[in-house]
Amino acid sequence: MKRLIGSTAAVAVGLCVWLVLATASGGGRHAYLAGGGCSVADADRFAVARALGDAFGQVQARHAIAIWQVGADRGLPEQAMVIAITTAIQESGLRVLANPAVPDSYDYTHDGEGFDHDSVGLFQQRQSWGPTEVLMDPEGSAGLFYDKLVSIEGWESMTVAQAAQAVQVSAFPDAYAAHEDQARAAVEAIVDGCVGQWVHPTPGAGIVSGWRTDARPSHNGVDLGAARGAAILAASAGEVVTVVCNAHTPAGRQLSCDVDGSPQIMGCGWYVEIAHAQNLLTRYCHMGQRPSVNVGEQVATGDVLGYVGSSGRSSGPHLHLEVHRSHNPTFDTALSPQEFFSSKGIKL
Description:
By secondary structure, the protein is an alpha+beta fold. The protein has helices spanning about 45-50, 60-75, 80-90, 130-135, 140-150, 160-170, 180-190, 335-345; strands spanning about 10-15, 20, 30-35, 95-100, 110-115, 195-200, 205-210, 220-225, 230-235, 240-250, 265-275, 280-285, 300, 305, 320-325, 335. A hairpin with a 6-residue loop joins strand 2 (about 20) and strand 3 (about 30-35). The radius of gyration is 23 Å and the shape is elongated.
């Protein structure tokens, strides 16, 4: 597979990227992870354990990472992960606890015992929360916690302790606050352990049409003014999940992607989607001929995906580039490519 990385391609190696995005209501601003989490294997468990404090080891660090990863995979703000980890520290000391009152809890991997009613797992969830198998699973129990958290109106404006109490309804509502700093330190350590390499997909080509401008509010990406025939590079490593010709009339009649399109045609022309780590996805549109890659291929950063053209809904040669924080892209999952690449140290 062709690869074009050299002096002309700016490479950025950095931390997991956190973008500041306005909430849907426009009222507040939160740090969102651009995509889901890095895997438990990627994060530095020693660093996370140190962030949690002397009483915590790699087992608890692994659980903290798992809690964070579930929240990141859901595209939740940093505050949600802090609330969840804070809660687990208070409820179980970040340990998966079995309970003699729930005999089948011992059938699952556990770190110790608890004796509070019929509560089990990291969050000491009672049997009314769900099956024991789920409650004893770090990812499963975290998912249940987040389900409840996001169902609470106004949780984002609550303090960490208030939000934790709203979920748990604990007899000790004031106890959560003591663990917030530990949880925040753990989140920082988790993020610091997640690395990635990114490049400009058409080096030297600048933006000629921006992301969701006033003139084009539904424009889910940016248009890069690259010349016809210029190589389009994989912005980061990942798996090719889509190779499609998408060109049709407004009435739905399929058209060829091997010829130039026009503003009257619908669709992205020849395009490729790559699923990356951290639940990110990039989309590359309007290629001039069938892409050089196939679905299922693993591509490295800088591999050639295809060549700039003007197929589909297009008024001239360019690359339409999108970045999504989900492997199932929708309008709501789109991120500003300019902000995203800028946070990787790359100017589009």
